[in-house]
Design goal:
globular; about 55% helix; 4 helices; about 180 residues
Length: about 180
């Protein structure tokens, strides 16, 4: 491996180090972008849940698009989209907290560890981290999350969900697109 032994002036890096320095700078900027995006998702989800809890009584339903979309106030002690919500197991919340924290740690580690993070993967992982962190905080703080988006068609209602759940699903979609169409 050859080195550029040309003398440098002031604080300039040797020519061979310029691409490496730019790569580190771009990598750091993409990490900052990922962190900011995750923080925006986290704060937006926490804010929407707080506004909803202050404004709408529990179990109230407000039609937004009649026949398709309601705003509702539901407490979800289960996982995403109310999975396991009806389980009477006393350890359910603790298990959901441990599993969520472990998965959040793995995804965060992936973001920090990956040397070249494509934008689709970075956006996807950031959305997942922000949403998972917000729901995890709710589970730790009160043992449940607030769901408020009710999508339905005729008599079929999708389980109600929140902004964090939406971010997680969209983030997973970005990851799927990345892995399907990347080289």
């Amino acid at each position: 491996m050859s080195q550029n032994l040309q003398p440098t002036t002031s604080n300039e890096a040797p020519t061979s180090d310029v691409p490496k320095a730019r790569a580190v700078q771009v990598r750091n900027l993409s990490r900052i972008f990922c962190g900011v995006l995750a923080l925006v998702v986290f704060l937006a989800d926490q804010a929407t849940k707080a506004m909803l809890e202050r404004s709408i009584p529990e179990h109230a339903v407000i039609p937004i698009i009649p026949g398709w979309l309601n705003l509702t106030h539901a407490k979800n002690p289960g996982a995403a989209f109310s999975l396991f919500a009806d389980s009477p197991a006393p350890w359910k919340t603790a298990l959901l907290v441990v599993v969520s924290a472990a998965l959040l740690a793995v995804v965060t580690w992936l973001v920090l560890r990956t040397s070249k993070l494509h934008w689709e993967a970075g956006v996807g992982l950031s959305l997942i981290v922000g949403g998972a962190a917000s729901n995890l905080l709710d589970r730790i703080r009160v043992g449940r999350v607030v769901d408020f988006i009710d999508v339905f068609f005729r008599t079929y209602h999708w389980p109600s969900f929140n902004l964090a759940d939406s971010a997680i699903v969209v983030g997973a979609g970005f990851l799927i697109l990345h892995y399907l169409f990347s080289e």
